[in-house]
Design brief:
7-stranded mixed β-sheet, Rossmann fold, single chain, alpha/beta
Amino acid sequence: MDFPYSRLRRWPDVEADNLQAHDATDALLVERALSLGIDGREVAVIGDEYGAITLALTDAGLDGIRVHQDLATGRRALARNADELGLAGFSSHELDASLLDGARLVLLQLPKALAELEEIADAVARWAAPDVVLVAGGRVKHMTIAQNEVLGRSFGQVQAKLAERKSRLVVASEPKEVPVTPPFPVTAQHDGLTLVAHGGAFAGARLDIGTRVLLGVLRAEDSPLGPGAPAEQSGPGPIVVDLGCGTGALAASYALGHPEAQVVATDRSAAAVASARGTMIANGIADRVAVMHDDAGSELADASADVVLLNPPFHLGSSVHTGAATRLFEAAARILRPGGALFTVYNSSLGYRAEVTRLVGPTEQVERTPKFTVARSIRR
């Protein structure tokens, strides 16, 4: 098979010389699937970052493949790459029964988090066909024995294959009986705030350290917009956006402390969005916080927000790359009205102050711990 992997793009995700839209694991998973001769309508693909697996199989003649991608950027890249290559015949789903019902083969790009893998494995054992085979793959340098152990909780047979091209496949079969209650989502209490988390949500139901620091600053602020900001608001209350909301800790805390605010929580991760929606329900504020699955707030209008809250990532997949934070800084600059405030927390070693000043506006440090810095930027 001669699929043009090199034509695939990551767009709208960050693109750079050291970031590709495919890897050897994609090719190994495709080759394994084609060797099994299973009908496309009985194939589900999970974790196909930019469509390399789905489109290669579709190009090979498989029709009716179901695919789940966690990231909004991945979903848009798949659609764009399919259009570019003139391919169709697949459908996108959430991680639920519609994705897996009747599936006899599930192809998985192994996630980084064991909790995410546990939720996926349980879902396959819970909803797929009784004779389903799960073929999971990853780059050898990122694979661990713990991943096999997690798969073993849901499958009777787990076998690692020999490494090829610095990637390896793990084949899981004989799904076990699943518990009545799925292992996810999980919940935890934090000083009057309930967090709900699915397996793929960053930090799970914990409050990560950076979020704790930013929450402390927000709770101490009399006026989040800061000195010199305009007094008028753009509606009955300030419009506050939790950009890259994760489990929704910042959005929920702000909404609980400022009932007059109009709060929006947005994240590109479907697992994060499902978690944030659960968090809002658990805290009784689902009717006051809008949760959106979106890429860098792209569906929010320009100059529509009074406050943006941001705890940016510094990884793209398994690569350390500041491009993800830069995209969110640019998004904050677009979303904020002139005079609006961006609150950012970041690892002090990253030194984002100059960049956020350039992209957003005048920036001051409002808190610094041994590890984290909180900055407030006023949109110029």
